[in-house]
Write a structure and sequence with these properties.
three-stranded parallel beta sheet, single chain, Rossmann fold, OB fold (Dihydrolipoamide Acetyltransferase, E2P), 19% strand
């Protein structure tokens, strides 16, 4: 979500006539887009702001702003206002469209603008500066109604509000006409899509997937993120039947202990999750499953952590984003008294990562010898002679392009997987 917000911010600035500077030193405007999910992101923000102070001293006309969901937090706004007087602008998740007038007002008056509006209507039809000419993010639902006890998102992103399906389809058709091959449908919980529509106008996420699947020119459809409690049989059936929907699902587990899941207010049990996995693999045998996992949640004991390790082994995730719990001010979990010591959290995190990596490597090894269709993303950042692409299961494949091949980026190729590593696959193009 934040990455796509960044594309919107860039699009708004470009429409104003700005072009991207190569370095902050060359910039007339520096805007930082933030995420407040993790506490360490807040700490990094303050570090970045400190690094920008010399630029403001050397160029008093420079406008420095901070946006994103972190600025929706009163504590962050108060800290920036008091401790970073050279920050000119704060804006939030709901007023990206106001950036032009806010910048103009600062230019005209020299005053700071630090008021961030609370929850409001999301402005549609903002210009978007896409990072890729053939892949695109498309928001389908804003906000979140789940209130997991560790999560600040519902407080800063507001309640769920689905975009109208006709608006979404219009955007995707325009993207296809511009050459986009792959779209990723975005939301804090895409499975809740349409539940806020009047009953007589009800379109759920499975219906939306079916509609997007009919758009000419789009070859691949992805989506994130899905909440397990809302993953319906209808959606699983549509994922299996819609040929453009990729065989990959990111399904955050968060914990393998029923006790911890209840404390997190996740509204499902480990058995519920395992039943979903069985249904998915029954309908889509080749599906790649990835997840999010948190260790060290308040009240987590060694037995609870062992339940999480057990779930990782039972499911056999293709990959996982792993985190040590960090309390976020304003959430229910931050008020709990039985916090896990930091050293214990980190010990569990390292042990979890070891098991996750073992499972990921095993999953990748199973693909050795198979032929996979990849969408080529371009030369590898580290080795320009090596290209990178992704399978429909969202696995990164590194390969050497055929001699004389040109214009591969954005095209689909068949590659034979020669080696499965923990994080990547190595392959060769099948002529």
């Amino acid at each position: 979500m934040n990455f796509h917000d960044g594309e919107k911010i860039a699009g708004v600035l470009e429409k104003m006539g700005y072009v991207r500077a190569d370095t902050p030193e060359e910039a007339d405007v520096v805007l930082l887009n933030t995420c407040c999910v993790r506490e360490n992101a807040e700490n990094r923000l303050y570090g970045h702001l400190g690094n920008l102070k010399p630029l403001k001293i050397n160029n008093p006309e420079l406008i420095i702003g901070v946006g994103g969901c972190m600025t929706q937090l009163p504590t962050v706004r108060a800290t920036i206002e008091a401790d970073y007087p050279y920050i000119d602008l704060l804006f939030g998740a709901f007023n990206i469209h106001q950036i032009p007038e806010l910048i103009m007002k600062i230019r005209e008056t020299g005053s700071r603008i630090l008021d961030v509006p609370g929850e409001g209507e999301m402005e549609e039809d903002l210009p978007v500066k896409r990072e890729s000419p053939f892949q695109a993010w498309v928001t389908v639902i804003y906000g979140c109604n789940n209130f997991c006890t560790y999560c600040i998102v519902p407080y800063v992103r507001g309640r769920e509000k689905s975009r109208r399906p006709e608006k979404i389809l219009m955007e995707i058709r325009e993207l296809a006409a511009a050459g986009v091959k792959e779209v990723t449908l975005l939301g804090q919980n895409v499975n809740s899509y349409g539940l806020d529509f009047p009953v007589e106008e009800r379109t759920d996420f499975a219906d939306l997937l079916a509609a997007v699947n009919t758009v000419d020119g789009i070859a691949r459809i992805r989506f994130q993120t899905s909440h397990p409690k809302d993953l319906s049989d209808k959606l699983i059936r549509q994922m299996a039947e819609a040929e453009k929907v990729c065989e990959h699902l990111h399904l955050p587990l968060q914990a393998g202990s029923d006790k911890i899941l209840k404390l997190m207010n996740r509204k499902y049990t480990r058995d519920d999750y395992l039943r979903l996995v069985d249904k998915l693999r029954s309908r889509i045998p080749e599906i790649a499953l990835t997840t999010d996992l948190i260790v060290g949640f308040p009240g987590e004991e060694e037995a609870d952590f062992q339940d999480t390790l057990d779930m990782v082994k039972k499911v056999g995730f293709d990959a996982a984003f792993t985190f040590a719990y960090s309390p976020r001010v304003g959430t229910q979990a931050a008020k709990l008294t039985n916090q896990v010591p930091e050293a214990e959290k980190m010990d569990r995190l390292y042990r979890l990562i070891e098991v996750v990596n073992q499972q990921a490597k095993a999953a990748n090894r199973r693909l050795e010898g198979t032929v996979q269709t990849i969408l080529v993303e371009g030369p590898s950042p580290k080795k320009k002679e090596i290209y990178a692409g992704r399978t429909r299961g969202n696995k990164l494949v590194l390969f050497a392009p055929p001699a004389g091949a040109a214009g591969l980026t954005g095209k689909e190729l068949n590659v034979r997987i020669r080696k499965g590593l923990t994080y990547t696959l190595q392959g060769e193009v099948v002529e």
